[in-house]
Amino acid sequence: MIFLDLMFNLTFLVSLSIISGFIEKRWPQRTRPGVLLQGFLFGFAAVIGMLRPLILEPGLIIDGRSVMISLCALFFGPWAAIVASAMTILCRVGLGGSGTLTGVLVILSSTGIGLLARIRFLPEKQHPSIKHLYLFGLIVHMAMLILLLIVPGGAGLTGVMHIGMPVILLYPLATILVGKILTDQLLALHTMAEIQETKQNLVTTLESIGDAVISTNLQGEITFINPVAEMLTGWSQAEACGRPLDEIFLIISEETRETVINPAIKALHEGTVVGLANHTLLIAKNGFERPIADSAAPIRDTLGNITGVVLVFRDQTEERRAQRLLRVRVTLLEYAATHTVEELLTKTLDEAESLVNSPIGFYHFVENDQQTLTLQAWSTRTRKEFCRAEGAGLHYSLEQAGVWADCARQKKTILHNDYAALPHKQGLPSGHPEMIRELVVPVLQHDKVVAILGVGNKPVDYTEQDGEIVRYLADLNWLIVKRKQAETMLHESEAKYRELFENAPIGIFSTTSQGQGLTINTTMTRMLGYDSPQEAVEHYTDLQKQLYVIPGERDRFLQILQEKGHVENFEYQAYTAHGKVVWLSMNARISRQNSDGSFIIEGFTTDITSQRNLAEQFRQAQKMESVGRLAGGVAHDYNNMLSVILGHTELALAKMNPADPIYEDLQEVFKAGTRSAALTAQLLAFARKQTIAPKVIDLNETIEAMLKMLRCLIGEDTTLVWIPKAGLWPIKFDPSQLDQILANLCVNARDAITGIGKVIIETDMVTLDPTYCDTHPGFSPGDFVLLTVNDDGCGMDQETRSKLFEPFFTTKGIGQGTGLGLATLYGIVKQNNGFINVYSEPGKGTQFKIYIPRHKGEPAISLEKGPMENIPAGQGESILIVEDEMVILNMTKMMLEGLGYSVLTACTMNEARQQVETHAGKISLLITDVIMPEINGRELAAQLTALSPNLKVLFMSGYTADVITQRGMLNKGVCFISKPFSMNDLACKVREALT
Description:
Elements: H1 2-26, H2 32-51, E1 54-57, E2 60-62, H3 65-95, H4 100-121, H5 130-148, H6 155-208, E3 212-217, E4 222-225, H7 227-233, H8 237-240, H9 245-248, E5 250-253, H10 263-270, E6 274-275, E7 280-283, E8 289-300, E9 306-315, H11 317-338, H12 341-355, E10 360-366, E11 372-378, H13 380-386, E12 395-397, H14 406-410, E13 414-416, E14 438-445, E15 448-456, H15 464-503, E16 507-512, E17 517-520, H16 522-527, H17 533-539, H18 543-546, H19 552-564, E18 566-575, E19 581-593, E20 599-607, H20 609-655, H21 661-686, E21 695-697, H22 699-714, E22 718-723, E23 731-733, H23 735-752, E24 757-768, H24 770-774, E25 782-791, H25 798-802, H26 821-831, E26 835-840, E27 846-853, E28 878-882, H27 886-898, E29 902-906, H28 909-918, E30 925-929, H29 937-947, E31 952-957, H30 961-966, E32 976-978, H31 983-994
Parallel strand pairs: 22-24, 28-29, 28-30, 30-31, 31-32
Antiparallel strand pairs: 1-2, 3-4, 3-9, 5-7, 6-8, 7-8, 8-9, 10-11, 10-15, 11-12, 13-14, 14-15, 16-17, 16-20, 18-19, 19-20, 21-23, 24-25, 25-27, 26-27
């Protein structure tokens, strides 16, 4: 009987679980009403069970309330459990009896165990298994049996013994059965809710997706169409559903305009995904055409059967436009690389016309004043087919421009789709095409209009999208134009910099601080003797060793550079490519400092070799001037003393018997005086203060007259070769100085030759141009007669050559030379406005080249003379000598009297005048000193010739040539004799003056 009662309770529990499932469908447990209803249902079921319990004894009953209450707490949570347990407790208390307390405790324990199990199993997320349900039921009912033991009077123990086994066996099974039913119900409900939510999400997704979506059934009738598809087709969801797909989705080929097979139909037939062909147009309900793309795919059920098709497509209008604009951008960028700005503007207009289907295009620049417009270009089609108006370069003001210029006035895009109706339009210029529509956009830079691009006469109205396209092209074109202009300016700037760099008159360079060459310009390349800058850069890998003659100078340069950051006027000696040494002056700075401590040096270099040579020449000139001043300062007194010494010695020799022992002594005195006079003459020649008497001569004649003497000078072991140039230009030169030059050179050549040798004397004619003179400091352009003396002697090194013309410099031993020979030669050449070059190397001989200016006046006189005759003595002619030095006066008087002349003397101007005025006879010749205290010789001669017009004049002086020249004593036709002079010299000059 007890098992039947328990089975009844279990059957009742199953019925209640079904009702619980119904409640869950209508009011899910996630809502408060659903939870409370579940609690009420399970509490009601527990109450019913208690109303038909198994009565063990009066007041002690057994029913299914523990199953109901525990499962309600497990599956529906605390609120449902509270409702159910409250109803059940009230009922049990109402029934009363000895087991009332135990019954209440069983209800509470079942509720607590159910809530703990809910926390443990979380049945809403992870449904409990059969094993867990059995264990759960066993625990609940073990607790119930234990609580029966507390019933007083031993009834509880009796009850446990009576129903314990059935309870342990059946009630957990009931828990499993009801729990499983509830679990499956909840799972099914949750699954349906998830399916419904997924379905709703899919619908929302399809409605929100950016692509158009249309789905059909197996018959090709539309079942769904999303908002994007509604917009593209022009059909709404309500209108489209149930209609055939071909009626809603009408597509044609963009190229052929023929109907295209619907991909959805093909997908239904073939069961595969089908893509649309390229260039497909969708025709909307209103006839508007759009390019579309994408595909159709079949819809299959769980068994794989096709139930319909889904069609996904998108509008390619913007994509096509973006792609075309991208292609145009690439095209214009590539075009700009090889074409001019004007050609680029025309190309841009052609592309703009193509994109917005316009036959006319024009482009203007807006000048900085924002008022002047400059027409830059027409499109190709405009120029060929429509416009005959004035073209590119046309300037006019903004006020004169028509309505198209409103874009510049208003700084925005202007669309005129009815040009004829515009009230403020102006007339079109002659040759301009008729305007129907126009689209004009401004190009703005920093809120200033810089350019205007316009198109016109599109067959249909311009749209805002057309405006965006044209504006994009206008802005793109301006960026390319500005970049191209910037590139052009950069190229011009680079070219100008390169030209300045390469053609700068000074050297420009950059190097590393480690001594590696980086860049070098053409000037510095030539300066260092290389053929190209690249060759020079590749050569210099270590400047300290390869460039600097003194390596330590590089260290000094770097030290200054690092201390100050720059170096100015740093002078150093450098090697050229051919080993030649040049002087360079450098200005440099550190241009970039590297993280490793190294740096880049940039600078300028000038070749100061010429300046250094000039400075050296200037110092040489100063030396010569100093010696000249010294010689000039003592020449007058020295020459006077020599005149006395030589004169009296000569007079004494004339009176003495050669056999007299003193005769030889006097001859030695005379020789010493002569050598002293020659030494003074050499000093004066070196200082260019020698008294000279230049004549127009033929150099060949003069040299030929000296050849015999020169051969004697060089000796028999040395061959003298004479190579004259025929037709030589005349020169104006003192023959005696020429004698000095040749004698000096031949003697030096003789001394340089050891054993048998050769001396070659050549003459030639040369013309020096400015280019040659630029590279040879001290030379001047012009025509020159060239005298060359070569020898094959020992030669000279550079140091010797650098001191060759210094006074008193000699390579000869002590007593073998004065060191004035070449210095005298140098002075003679410079005194006659000539130049001299020396070429010599050790062991390769020496070559002297002397350039003497060509004389373009009277022809050369012949130096040929007949046989020397004895100079006739005087014939009693009266000669007046005026000399302030008494010893010179007396000596000269004695010489002239010895020659047979009648001599008058005077020390002052007054005495001279008195002699002329009082002398009874004729005075034939006046010999006067040039420099005297009261009056110079020229003024004295003028006064005395005024008293005696037939008076001849012979001037004499021991002063230097520059002093005498200032008095005009060396002018043509003036007779002059330089102190000291011999009796023979005086006799010749007197006879010359008298005749």
